[in-house]
Task: structure prediction
Amino acid sequence: MSSDAIAIRAAEVGGRPWVEALHDWITTVDHKRLGILYILFALLFLVIGGLEAIVIRIQLMRPHNDFVSPQVFNRMFTMHGTTMIFFVIMPFMFGFANYLVPLMIGARDMAFPRLNAFSFWLTAFGGFLLYFSFLGGSGLYGAGSAPDVGWWAYAPLTSRAFSPGHSADYWTIAVLVSGFGSIGTATNIIATILSMRCPGMTLGRMPLMGWMTLVMSGLVLISISPLSAAQIMLLVDRYLGGHFFDTQAGGSATLWMHFFWIFGHPEVYILVIPAFAFASEIIPVFSRKPIFGYPVMVAATVCIGFISMSVWAHHMFTIGMDSAANTFFVLTTMAIAVPTGIKIFNWLGTMWGGKLQFKTPMLFCVAFLFQFLIAGLTGVMLGTAPFNWQLSGSYFVIAHFHYVIVGAILFCMFGAIYYWYPKITGRMLNETLGKLHFWLFVIGFHLTFDAMHIPGVLGMPRRIYTFEPGRGWDSWNFIISIGAFIQGVATLLFLANLVVSYFKGPRAGNDPWDAWTLEWSVSSPPPAYNFAAIPTVESRRPLWDRKHPEDPDSRYE
Amino acid sequence: MNLSGVEWEGVARRAAGILFLVLGLLLAAGLCTASTPGENPVPNIFEPHSTPADSIFRLSGFVLAITGMIFLVVFILLVYVVVKFRARTTDSPHEPAQVYGSTQIELAWTVIPILIVVVLFLATTRVIHAIQDAPKPANAVEVIAIGHQFWWEFRYPALGIVTANELHIPVSDPANPTPTYLKLLSADTDHSFWVPQLAGKTDLIPNRVNTMWMDPHRTGIFLGQCAQYCGTQHAKMLLQVIVDSREDFQAWANAQKQLPKQDESASAGRNVFETTACVNCHAVDGTMATGRFGPDLTHLMSRSTIASGAAENTPEKLRLWIQNPDAIKPGSLMPAMKLSDTELDALVRYLETLR
Result:
């Protein structure tokens, strides 16, 4: 197989010209290298999306500020949202799935290595295309500009009448192309998990990361498809005279909303379920106990996957659906709180009676538990339709979903990097810098997103480039901006830690955390093809069994 | 060595205390920005002055109480676990007891949330029904609200009035309610009508007719703004609802129905108005200006702001708005009229007669 040949060559890199090393990275079909590429791509865009957030927050530091024009501000929030969702969190999650799933299930690579590379480069191409809009957005009109239609790109703002030029096309095509990449990788992950587990690794013994990645990939298949369909319909509208969403020609604005949110809500779970997966791997190891209630955790994840497909219109409570439809979506939305609550309690149960070690990965996961609790409860508030009529479209919603995306997902992403960086690079991250990063980020996060609930309650809508003084919003916005700057500084510390530790960090060894899943049984970084001999497992914690032959897990499962 | 553990617990307890204090202060500060009666209130969803906003406020109190209790219980459990089960140097070197789960406990934390969800769902359903399915009384005031980039058009079909950005409605006496029913339309992109103290928001969507209602219990000016991103100047699509006493509302309506008095001293300005592009977009009743793309100017001077709340309605601001709209509202669809100074002066003088 050609993939073998390339991977073997890659393993021999050392002392060769950088062009050849670069060539190896670009043509690689190795799951670990593609995983690293995904993660680096996501980190690059995390910095870009973060800078956009900083621009937004400088502009909103005081009322009637004129740091940027309304046009630039609108591009900033559109690009910030699109970047963070499609080009930071999704690639990051795919990167870790790519890197870890084969290692965790005892496989030598993904099921389709070439599809893997193809999907990554599609996503990367989508990201760079989106940013090329800054140069080519308005095409022959001249200067160029990024899309400014918001990351949901609601119709009819995207129609030719309201978005002349090509900025909206960059958004559409970038999301469409990266969507195909996501579908490819999701297919690959599903195939890998279903058909490449090592002997003894039944589905019931798979690490929770495997289960959660499986559910996430299923959701990608189901939800990216309608999004892609909608993007194609939008292109038909814009270039082939279609009228799906073109309201001036009788099209429907609400049709786009349904298409978008039937993608958009499962998308939330596509992003958060891998974060759950990180927490479910990290919390047990640093509590020195197995995950509490493994079967229930799996059931709750699958349950969330199914329910998440029936809640989309809770993003649309204000569009004037009738009371019966509103009632239905209130019910489904609240139902999803049950399996989500079960998860929080199971993590709590895992920690209960353990010996908690507050290393940096664990710190991020514990903060995740606190913050996800609050995010879930504000989610319940937003799920009660009448309360939503007040809160939706306001800064309260911004606070709520940043509590999910930053407070839960990004915290788990940081935790995952601190936890698996030693495996990926063979070096430990600096623990002191890590703790400093953690505490600074916690302070910045809470300044920003706790305060952000209040202007929402006081009637401040989202997506406004400036606001009127005298409405009680001024000082809150100032606090929010200060918190954002602190988060920015913390992120710089984190990046510095990544770079410095790569060269100077102490050697990690195979198993620095005394963990229990298969990836810790191989060297750090793992050798080409991961396992010289395919392992055989007898329980959910194969390394526990090896370390405690007198009392193996297999006796209790 | 045990000492360090104790110290740490103290720190954790203090930290938790501080966190509680901060959260409490945040909440209190949010709730207490309430204005004193008599003043025109700043927007606040927890200070309702109309039945729909009030029902939502009551529901939100209930939801906040339940979620607050859940928060307290889980938060305390989490803090307890973090403090109590922290690894200590005095611990034995052995791993803790390996517990894999407990069906009873897991059943408990499945069933209790389900019960809570059922209660919340039922409470919510009642309020949805009460607000959305409220029968329209015969004496309701009907207004058609049309969202434009980036301003509001208000039409009173029964009264034959057309105005913009400042919605006048009568106060509603709970004993004999005269609620206002809004029919919401859009001329271009999506918008959302949101005046937090009067009702929740409802979107204005092209090719779709939405409705909402409100019955303000007190007079005053209630502020709001467009709550659905509608384009470049979404931020300055501000909104005022002026709740008048019944007499004041009647007087206002009567004045709006009159044609503005012709003032011969402003005829030069009127000439400028009627011979330039102004009339393509703006209407003044009783003249040849019948444009509908921009706000109706028949009673421009009866409004306190221009450019949908972006500026005070003063002669200076009017002049600036006509000369260079981007100085007030960059990206608005009002073009710079490129008039000479004399024409500008005359035009502003004419506009000032539109009372």
Observations:
- Chain A touches chain B through 98 residues (CB under 8 Å).
- The mean pLDDT of chain A is 94.
- The CA atoms of residues 36 and 95 of chain A lie 6 Å apart.
- The longest helix of chain A spans residues 70-104.
